[in-house]
Amino acid sequence: MSPPSAAAEKPRYRGRFAPSPSGPLHFGSLVAALASFCDARAAGGDWLLRIEDVDTPRSRAGAEAQILSTLERYGFEWDGAIVRQSDRIALYEEALAQLRMRGLVYACECTRRELAETPLGPAGEHVYPGTCSKGPLPTRRGRRQFAWRVRVDAEARECPDRVQVAQRQDLARDVGDFVVKRADGLFAYQLAVVVDDGEQGITDVVRGADLLASTPRQVMLQNMLSLPTPRYLHVPIAINPAGEKLSKQTRAAELPAGPLPALLAAWQFLEQPLPFESPSSVAEFWTWAHASWQVARLPPVPMLPAPAVRAIAGPNAAAP
């Protein structure tokens, strides 16, 4: 009997883009979308679209429709139906039930004010000291709201990345037991994204380097839930002149109506090879981009300055 072919052994590439409907897409969003889209298409794979709306207080009315309209105008084409986290709560409940049954999570009654007094870890997050790990303190019994925290182990994890330096993190020292379901009843990003990627068969995660520090936590949860670990590729995030990540919170400008200058600016931001002649249409740009994508050219740094607004909006943009 002949051995199985390499093609049969390797699963089909499945990537995804997962925006939160908390506001319009901006240049930082475009960089992540472009990188994940090109990486999937260059590999002949699928590119899925997931709306990460599990954090309902941050979701804005009309934001999802605005995001979809922008992606379509910019020429992005996703495969299959759009998935929304708000429709997948039962899956997260099932995963939490598995962790509870095995004693891997516990109820935490600490308040935000109490947690604000804990020390900061290397990633700038408060390190949970394990206050509730052996049960609620007598002074806290009777509190109606509590979160669920997963028990981390003492193993230092190294998470390889296709571009960035591998992340090595001692979760017990650097993070502590972390939340998988919040005290307000909403599931935390760390659990939701792991369940989603596993259930959707995601093989490759391409996203911004601001999520590098989250990767060891997600790998630990994947192991706990017997889910496969995707390959990770973290591209540099775009920062403003103040050194802040472009985001809705830092009032990043919405993507302009004209796609081509912004697409070219994102392509150059990722240091990809430029065509001999500038594409004259969005379709022409994507034909070039999918054929020319080179992971080896991506800058192995966590952040880079965003281009000037004029470069993103095009030479005919009105002055601010």
Note down, in words, how this protein is organized.
The strands form five sheets. The protein has a three-stranded parallel beta sheet with strand order 1-2-3. The chain has a three-stranded antiparallel beta sheet with strand order 4-5-8. It has a two-stranded antiparallel ribbon with strand order 6-7. It has eleven helices and twelve strands. The mean pLDDT is 91. The relative contact order is 0.16. It has two domains: 11-87 and 196-239 and 246-307, Rossmann fold; 90-154 and 168-191, HUPs (Rossmann fold), CATH 3.40.50. The chain is an alpha/beta fold. Helix content is 31%, strand content 15%. The N and C termini lie far apart (69 Å).
What are the main properties of this structure?
single chain, 320 residues, alpha/beta, Rossmann fold, three-stranded parallel β-sheet, 11 helices, 31% helix, globular
